[in-house]
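Quick one: examine the sequence and C-alpha coordinates given here and explain what the C-alpha coordinates say about the fold. Here goes:
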Amino acid sequence: MVSKDTVSRILSINYEGFIPILWEAIKVQQGQIQELQTQLDEVLNSGTNANARQAKETENGVSNSLNSSEESSLLHQNIPNPANGSTEIRYSIRDNVTQASLHIYSLNGRQLKSYDLPIIKAKGSINISSADFGAGVFLYSLIVDGKEEGMKKMIIR
Protein backbone atom coordinates (compact mmCIF):
# COMPACT_ATOMS: atom_id res chain seq x y z
CA MET A 1 0.00 0.00 0.00
CA VAL A 2 2.96 2.32 0.62
CA SER A 3 5.66 2.74 -1.97
CA LYS A 4 8.88 4.67 -1.93
CA ASP A 5 10.33 6.48 -4.93
CA THR A 6 13.96 5.29 -5.15
CA VAL A 7 15.22 8.56 -6.60
CA SER A 8 13.40 11.19 -4.51
CA ARG A 9 12.81 8.88 -1.52
CA ILE A 10 9.24 10.20 -1.22
CA LEU A 11 6.64 7.86 0.21
CA SER A 12 3.26 7.53 -1.48
CA ILE A 13 0.07 5.66 -0.65
CA ASN A 14 -1.99 3.51 -3.01
CA TYR A 15 -5.44 4.68 -1.90
CA GLU A 16 -7.23 2.41 -4.37
CA GLY A 17 -5.65 -0.57 -2.63
CA PHE A 18 -7.53 0.32 0.57
CA ILE A 19 -10.96 0.03 -1.06
CA PRO A 20 -11.26 -3.80 -0.84
CA ILE A 21 -10.04 -3.77 2.77
CA LEU A 22 -12.51 -1.07 3.77
CA TRP A 23 -15.33 -2.77 1.87
CA GLU A 24 -14.77 -6.02 3.77
CA ALA A 25 -14.68 -4.12 7.09
CA ILE A 26 -18.01 -2.48 6.24
CA LYS A 27 -19.57 -5.88 5.46
CA VAL A 28 -18.36 -7.28 8.81
CA GLN A 29 -19.67 -4.22 10.64
CA GLN A 30 -23.05 -4.47 8.90
CA GLY A 31 -23.31 -8.10 9.99
CA GLN A 32 -22.62 -7.08 13.58
CA ILE A 33 -25.26 -4.36 13.39
CA GLN A 34 -27.84 -6.85 12.05
CA GLU A 35 -27.01 -9.32 14.84
CA LEU A 36 -27.32 -6.65 17.54
CA GLN A 37 -30.62 -5.42 16.06
CA THR A 38 -31.98 -8.97 16.15
CA GLN A 39 -30.92 -9.37 19.79
CA LEU A 40 -32.47 -6.02 20.69
CA ASP A 41 -35.75 -6.95 18.99
CA GLU A 42 -35.85 -10.26 20.92
CA VAL A 43 -35.31 -8.49 24.24
CA LEU A 44 -37.93 -5.86 23.47
CA ASN A 45 -40.46 -8.46 22.39
CA SER A 46 -39.90 -10.53 25.51
CA GLY A 47 -40.46 -7.51 27.74
CA THR A 48 -37.76 -8.59 30.18
CA ASN A 49 -35.46 -5.60 29.95
CA ALA A 50 -36.94 -2.17 30.72
CA ASN A 51 -33.68 -0.37 29.96
CA ALA A 52 -33.51 -1.88 26.46
CA ARG A 53 -37.14 -0.88 25.92
CA GLN A 54 -36.33 2.67 26.99
CA ALA A 55 -33.32 2.75 24.65
CA LYS A 56 -35.45 1.57 21.73
CA GLU A 57 -38.13 4.20 22.48
CA THR A 58 -35.50 6.92 22.70
CA GLU A 59 -33.87 5.72 19.46
CA ASN A 60 -37.22 5.95 17.67
CA GLY A 61 -38.09 9.31 19.23
CA VAL A 62 -41.10 7.76 20.94
CA SER A 63 -42.20 8.56 24.46
CA ASN A 64 -45.40 6.55 24.53
CA SER A 65 -47.72 6.44 27.50
CA LEU A 66 -47.32 3.68 30.01
CA ASN A 67 -49.97 1.05 29.44
CA SER A 68 -49.43 -1.34 32.30
CA SER A 69 -48.35 -1.24 35.91
CA GLU A 70 -45.63 -3.79 35.03
CA GLU A 71 -43.77 -1.30 32.85
CA SER A 72 -40.93 0.78 34.20
CA SER A 73 -40.92 4.46 34.76
CA LEU A 74 -38.82 6.34 32.22
CA LEU A 75 -36.21 9.06 32.55
CA HIS A 76 -35.33 11.08 29.46
CA GLN A 77 -32.21 13.06 28.57
CA ASN A 78 -32.38 16.72 29.56
CA ILE A 79 -32.99 19.21 26.77
CA PRO A 80 -30.89 21.12 25.87
CA ASN A 81 -27.71 19.33 26.81
CA PRO A 82 -25.31 21.04 27.25
CA ALA A 83 -27.47 23.65 28.95
CA ASN A 84 -26.89 27.33 29.44
CA GLY A 85 -29.52 29.05 31.58
CA SER A 86 -32.07 26.31 32.09
CA THR A 87 -32.77 22.77 30.97
CA GLU A 88 -35.82 20.49 31.03
CA ILE A 89 -35.79 16.91 32.33
CA ARG A 90 -38.75 14.80 31.18
CA TYR A 91 -39.94 11.62 32.92
CA SER A 92 -42.84 9.18 33.00
CA ILE A 93 -44.08 7.55 36.21
CA ARG A 94 -45.68 4.11 36.05
CA ASP A 95 -48.93 3.27 37.80
CA ASN A 96 -49.12 2.09 41.45
CA VAL A 97 -46.14 4.15 42.66
CA THR A 98 -45.98 5.33 46.27
CA GLN A 99 -42.95 7.63 46.02
CA ALA A 100 -40.96 9.23 43.17
CA SER A 101 -38.13 11.72 43.16
CA LEU A 102 -35.40 13.14 40.96
CA HIS A 103 -31.91 13.48 42.43
CA ILE A 104 -29.02 15.49 41.04
CA TYR A 105 -25.45 14.47 41.88
CA SER A 106 -21.96 15.80 41.34
CA LEU A 107 -19.57 13.49 39.49
CA ASN A 108 -18.02 12.42 42.79
CA GLY A 109 -21.44 11.09 43.90
CA ARG A 110 -22.49 13.86 46.29
CA GLN A 111 -26.22 14.55 46.12
CA LEU A 112 -26.74 18.24 45.34
CA LYS A 113 -30.51 18.49 45.07
CA SER A 114 -33.63 16.36 45.31
CA TYR A 115 -37.07 17.01 43.82
CA ASP A 116 -40.22 15.14 44.92
CA LEU A 117 -42.34 14.17 41.91
CA PRO A 118 -46.10 13.59 41.67
CA ILE A 119 -46.92 9.91 42.19
CA ILE A 120 -49.54 9.61 39.51
CA LYS A 121 -49.21 7.59 36.32
CA ALA A 122 -48.17 10.44 34.09
CA LYS A 123 -45.57 12.15 32.02
CA GLY A 124 -43.99 15.18 33.57
CA SER A 125 -41.00 17.43 33.44
CA ILE A 126 -38.88 19.55 35.69
CA ASN A 127 -37.03 22.72 34.70
CA ILE A 128 -33.59 23.09 36.21
CA SER A 129 -31.81 26.43 36.41
CA SER A 130 -28.09 26.32 35.67
CA ALA A 131 -27.70 29.06 38.29
CA ASP A 132 -28.48 26.46 40.98
CA PHE A 133 -25.43 24.35 40.10
CA GLY A 134 -22.86 26.38 38.18
CA ALA A 135 -20.89 25.06 35.24
CA GLY A 136 -19.94 21.40 35.19
CA VAL A 137 -21.01 17.84 34.53
CA PHE A 138 -23.73 16.36 36.72
CA LEU A 139 -25.68 13.11 36.98
CA TYR A 140 -29.40 12.91 37.60
CA SER A 141 -31.43 9.89 38.61
CA LEU A 142 -35.11 8.94 38.79
CA ILE A 143 -35.89 7.07 42.03
CA VAL A 144 -39.24 5.27 42.16
CA ASP A 145 -40.28 3.41 45.29
CA GLY A 146 -36.67 3.33 46.46
CA LYS A 147 -35.29 1.89 43.22
CA GLU A 148 -33.29 3.74 40.60
CA GLU A 149 -35.20 3.67 37.30
CA GLY A 150 -32.60 5.53 35.25
CA MET A 151 -29.61 7.82 35.34
CA LYS A 152 -28.43 10.41 32.81
CA LYS A 153 -25.61 12.90 32.43
CA MET A 154 -26.24 16.65 32.29
CA ILE A 155 -23.73 19.28 31.19
CA ILE A 156 -24.12 22.87 32.29
CA ARG A 157 -22.04 25.64 30.75
Remarks:
- The chain has two domains: 2-46, 66-156.
- Strands lie at 2-4, 11-13, 74-75, 86-93, 100-106, 111-116, 122-129, 136-144, 147-156.
